[in-house]
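Hi all, long-time lurker, first post. I run a small reading group and we've been trying to get comfortable going from sequence to structure in the token notation. Rather than ask abstract questions, I figured I'd post a concrete chain and ask someone more experienced to write out its structure so we can walk through it together at our next meeting. Sequence below, copied exactly:
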Amino acid sequence: MAAEARANIKGADIEFGTVTSANPASIAADSAGTVVLTITGAATTDLVFVNPEALEDGLVVQGATVTDANEVTVQLQNTTESAVDGAASAYQYMLVKVAS
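-- Answer (accepted) --
Happy to help. Here is the structure in token form:
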């Protein structure tokens, strides 16, 4: 997904956008899982912050990393005592491209 807004703050280009739908696989009780987002222009040297519009009870975002060109992996944790199969949700993101 392309950026919806851009800003430049002290040499860092910042992009804001939304990935319209991503669906994490079922995550076992008290375990971690991931969901992969496609963000056009993301590079492994970028910082990324994500916020899902909705998550099932017991799922929390542990972090996000640009793992490949245009690919962001979001780490999720299931804090419940049973498996949670997350539904598709939109994810808002902030991508920070730090000038080298």
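A couple of things your group might point at:
The radius of gyration is 14 Å.
The beta strands are 5-9, 12-22, 26-27, 32-38, 47-52, 59-68, 71-78, 84-85, 89-98.
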